[in-house]
């Protein structure tokens, strides 16, 4: 008897869809080597090649094409099983697993919970706080039901249903004695020779900032990386460089004279979205909260 892991099937389908190991690994949030090992193990367990790795983009073998048909049926049946079993879980005892980032702009998640629970007191929340990229991974893996996060640039590549909630402008912060501090607005291209303090690469904002700098015609000189707007503000105040920060991130600013805020002539934004995986059915409690938060003001 052949024993296959659902994860192996999901990995195979990602490779079949992307036709590229690197892109599939990025979508699954795993290393390319780990993905390749799982596909190789799958092929060894079946005793046949499913993927032609020589051709680029990669192609499925005839056996791989047949396997894909069964793999899609299996994942669909597993999803249907999960959904149908939800009816045995009383809505009165339902826990919604929600992932959130720290920087939600003007969205007060505590107030949303309080208001929702006043109408549905027996629906509970289990909240996970992570960076946006990690929340995408948790949502893909089914470890959370919903996520509130800053949309990555490749949000459309995920099997997510997405509802935009808010967009928040990024501004430039500089030491108070910096030449830019005399300006009200600035073109991003004017900062090409500056030292930058960025978030880490695990942060969606890193990709946003880097992409905007490249669009402005330069590669940013990053002298330090750290997550948390408060830390970046401290480093700017210390004179290490300049940084981008969202308007809500300025709440960490203590209004001292050692910092200046300059808006961009062509601003760019952090887009806060509500996301869930695309599925035919959702539990009643999850659907209720999904609809409720979209109407929240």
Automatic annotation (TrEMBL):
Keywords: DNA-binding, Transcription, Transcription regulation. The keyword Transcription regulation applies. CDD domains: PBP2_LTTR_substrate (cd05466). It comes from the Bacteria. Residues 4-61 form the HTH lysR-type domain. It comes from Pelosinus fermentans B4. Belongs to the LysR transcriptional regulatory family. InterPro entries: HTH-type_LysR_regulators, LysR_HTH_N, LysR_subst-bd, WH-like_DNA-bd_sf, WH_DNA-bd_sf. This is LysR substrate-binding protein. PANTHER family: HTH-TYPE TRANSCRIPTIONAL REGULATOR BSDA (PTHR30419:SF28), HTH-TYPE TRANSCRIPTIONAL REGULATOR YBHD (PTHR30419). GO terms for cellular component: cytosol. GO terms for molecular function: DNA binding; DNA-binding transcription factor activity. SUPFAM superfamilies: Periplasmic binding protein-like II, Winged helix' DNA-binding domain.
């Amino acid at each position: 008897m052949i024993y296959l892991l659902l994860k192996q099937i999901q990995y195979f389908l990602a490779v079949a869809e992307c036709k590229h190991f690197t892109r599939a690994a990025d979508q699954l949030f795993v290393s390319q080597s780990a993905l390749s090992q799982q596909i190789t193990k799958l092929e060894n367990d079946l005793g046949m090649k499913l993927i032609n790795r020589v051709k680029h983009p990669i192609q499925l073998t005839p056996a791989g094409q047949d396997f894909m048909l069964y793999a899609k049926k299996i994942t669909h049946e597993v999803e249907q099983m999960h959904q149908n079993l939800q009816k045995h879980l009383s809505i009165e005892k339902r826990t919604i697993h929600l992932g959130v980032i720290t920087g939600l702009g003007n969205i007060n998640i505590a107030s949303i919970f309080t208001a929702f629970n006043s109408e549905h007191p027996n629906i509970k929340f289990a909240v996970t706080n992570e960076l946006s990229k990690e929340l995408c991974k948790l949502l893909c893996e089914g470890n959370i039901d919903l996520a509130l996060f800053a949309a990555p640039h490749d949000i459309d590549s995920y099997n997510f249903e997405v509802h935009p909630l808010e967009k928040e402008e990024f501004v430039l912060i500089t030491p108070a004695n910096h030449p830019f501090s005399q300006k009200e607005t600035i073109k991003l291209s004017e900062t090409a020779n500056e030292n930058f303090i960025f978030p880490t690469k695990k942060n969606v904002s890193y990709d946003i900032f880097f992409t905007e700098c490249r669009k402005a015609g330069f590669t940013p000189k990053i002298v330090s990386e750290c997550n948390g707007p408060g830390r970046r503000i401290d480093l700017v105040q210390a004179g290490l460089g300049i940084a981008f920060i969202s308007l809500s991130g300025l709440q960490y600013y203590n209004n001292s004279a050692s910092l200046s805020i300059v808006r961009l002539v062509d601003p760019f934004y952090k887009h806060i979205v509500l996301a869930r995986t695309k599925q035919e059915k959702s539990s009643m409690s999850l659907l209720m909260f999904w609809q409720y938060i979209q109407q929240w003001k």
